[in-house]
Amino acid sequence: MVLMLDSIWASFIPYEGSMNKKAFITLFVVVFTGMLGMGIISPLMPLYAESMGTSGLQLGLMYSGFALSRVVVMPITGRLSDRRGRKIFIAIGLLAYTIISLLRSGG
User: Fold this and answer.
1) Residues 60 and 83 occupy one common structural domain
2) Which range marks the domain in which residue 31 is found?
3) How far apart are CA 14 and CA 25, in angstroms?
4) Structural domains of the chain, count
C-alpha cells in the first residue's frame, strides 16, 4: 500500500528533464490561489445570497452552472489550445476577463 501511494505521489513531482521546476511551482501557486479564493467565498455565499433575496435553489443553480460550463468548455478549449498554441488562448481569456470586469464595474 505504501509503495503504491509513493508511486502515485511521485507521478505528481516533476523529475529532472520532465518539467521545469520553476514552471511547476508557478502552476501550483496559480491553481492553489484559485482554489483558495473559491474556498474563502463558498462558506460566505449563503449569507450574501440571503441578504440579496436569492434562494438556495438559485445559489445551487449558479454553482452547478459554473461547474457544468467548465465540464463542457474545458476539453474543447484544451484541444484547440494544443493545436493552435496556448498563448493566444491565454491572451483571449485575459482580454475577455478584462472587458467583463470593466462592464460589471460600470466603467
Assistant:
1) yes
2) 1-54
3) 10
4) 2
